[in-house]
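Session log. Operator J.P. requested a structure for one protein chain; no other inputs attached. Running the standard single-chain path with token output.
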Amino acid sequence: MSHNHPESVEHVLDSYGDIFRACELDVYYYDSGRDDRVRDIVESFVARGYDNLKYIPCRGLSGDQKLGLLYSGKCLKGEYDYIWVVKDRTACDSRTILTVYQEALFEKPDMIVIDTYGEDVGKGMITYNRASELYRDLAWEITSMDVSLFRTATMLKDYVPYDNSLSPDDPRSSFMQYDFIFRKLAMMDSLKVRVISDPGVRILNSEKSGSMWADQIFDVWVNLWTKENEALPKIYDDHKKEVMRSSAVPHFLRSKEGLTELKNRGILTMDKLTLEIQKRWGLVSQVSVEDLLEICRS
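Structure written below.
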């Protein structure tokens, strides 16, 4: 999934292109950038023998439309047992790729999750057969687009895209893959999810670009995050309160120290604290609304 980050694309391919090729990993760039720089970079590598790289032009498509195109498999140049969706700044080393291959080949799970953030890192391989338990333990980790692989024969079978492009105020617009995963798992009569919790298995990121969400922390992680979880199927109801409070940027939203840091960085401002944010604040943080407003005004 690429959008206006040609420097990251080039850096990742310069650093890890040989590993991707040696591991016979096909890499597709679904690119909605404003110019042709990513296409030119990919084509330059293909000309040098990296025939595992594919470029899919997606200019004018929104994020959810690109994701739907990818899930549908319509632009794939071959048949694949698993699809791994990542951002254009994402890379991984050969150990990570080979560990994923081993899980796919011998375990054949419906979904593979690479847990690089959670409390279970270092516990090896964990199997989940209940969607509600996976949601309880790893919901926040799965908000990262980079950590999940889908078995095409089960998770992506009969995929139906959204009818229209999602508006920015639709919670799914910020949690597209998360929404897809937990709705799909809720519909499955049986499932097998394998979680790789090996500290030697890593998701790497190019330093040429970073997260674009810093300025949207309050809208995304207070407003849209809580609405997204509230809208998920009822099988997750017992764990929704717990999950919403385990949300991202944890020390920022859950402590006065973190909020003070956001204030000092110019991210916490009064215009961000809309009535909707104040109304939903208690769903994600134990810091009171009064303390939140006091920190913002100080």
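Operator note: Residues 6-22 form the longest helix (17 residues).
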